[in-house]
Amino acid sequence: AFMLYMKEMRAKVVAECTLKESAAINPILGRKWHALGREEQAKYYELARRERQLHMQLYP
């Protein structure tokens, strides 16, 4: 779920803080992830569940 969140939010964080290195961006994304409420995180957990199911169907 967090990886999908990072994929979606990385460009926004880079634009906000003008950092380019993953080592600097990832901790910011981690703090933002932990600041999200359960309902907001649930969206990404559901996306991750769907991705996992699709992967299992494509690669049994």
From TrEMBL:
List each copy of the HMG box domain by range.
1-60
Which superkingdom, per the lineage? Answer: Eukaryota
Q: Which residues bind DNA?
A: 1-60
Provide the alphabetized UniProt keywords.
Answer: Activator, Developmental protein, DNA-binding, Nucleus, Segmentation polarity protein, Transcription, Transcription regulation, Wnt signaling pathway
Task: Write one Pfam family the protein is assigned to.
Answer: HMG_box
According to its UniProt entry, the protein's GO biological process terms are: canonical Wnt signaling pathway; imaginal disc-derived wing morphogenesis; mesodermal cell fate determination; negative regulation of DNA-templated transcription; positive regulation of gene expression; regulation of stem cell proliferation; salivary gland morphogenesis; segment polarity determination
The record's annotation in InterPro entries points to:
HMG_box_dom, HMG_box_dom_sf, TCF/LEF
A GO term from the CC aspect: beta-catenin-TCF complex
Has the keyword Transcription regulation been applied to this entry?
yes
Which cellular compartments is it found in? Nucleus
Keyword NAD present in the record's keywords: the answer is: no
> Which molecular function terms from Gene Ontology are attached?
DNA-binding transcription activator activity, RNA polymerase II-specific; kinase binding; RNA polymerase II cis-regulatory region sequence-specific DNA binding; transcription corepressor binding
| Description of how the protein assembles with itself and partners | Binds to the beta-catenin homolog arm or to gro.
> Would you identify the family this protein belongs to, as annotated?
Belongs to the TCF/LEF family.
Primary role: Segment polarity protein. Functions together with arm to transduce the Wingless (Wg) signal in embryos and in developing adult tissues. Acts as a transcriptional activator, but in the absence of arm, it binds to gro and acts as a transcriptional repressor of wg-responsive genes.
Protein name, as recorded: dTCF
